[in-house]
Amino acid sequence: MIKNGLSISLPDKITIIEDAMVSKKVLKGQIKIMLKAFNIETDLLFDSLNPSSFINTMERIGKIATEIEEQRIIKEQMREEQRAIREYEKALSKAKKEEEMYQDALEKAKNELEIANDNEKEQLITKVELLEDKSKKRIF
């Protein structure tokens, strides 16, 4: 079962990082670690197995399997949360850069407005209003 990949089932759509090959390697490594942990714990239980403790031992093996699976799910959730945080921070950084770009363009347009003649002033006033409007929309 282990060699055929039937011992643990994984959803197809799990991504740890953007690179699918690396994600697959990480998941295979985690599977090996989970199976080793399960095997070690069950070996310890089988070492102390006797006919009177058979039912309790089998129940304990079931609990161990459930605990290991729950730990895997928790780790996956933590990775998803970390990825969401990174994406949020990236989007926030991008928004700040765009805001700085609009502010720089606005400042430049205001400076040009000060030295412009009457015809250019009308165009620059429109440009300044447009940039201020975009900047306000970005903030809210």
Map the helices and strands:
Layout lengths: L19 H28 L6 H62 L2 H22 L1
Helix pairs in contact: 1-2, 2-3
Helix content: over 70%
pLDDT averaged over residues: 81
What is the H-and-E element order? Answer: HHH
Query: How large is the count of helical segments?
Result: 3
The Rg value, from CA coordinates, equals 30 Å
Going by helix content, strand content and strand pairing, the class is mainly alpha
Tell me the span between the first and last alpha carbons. 55 Å
Strand content: under 5%
Structural commentary:
- This protein is mostly helical and 140 residues long.
- It has three helices and no strands.
- The protein has one domain.
- The protein has helices spanning 20-47, 54-115, 118-139.
- The longest helix has 62 residues, at 54-115.
How would you concisely characterize the structure shown here?
With 140 residues, the chain is an all-alpha fold.
State the main characteristics.
140 residues, mainly alpha, single chain
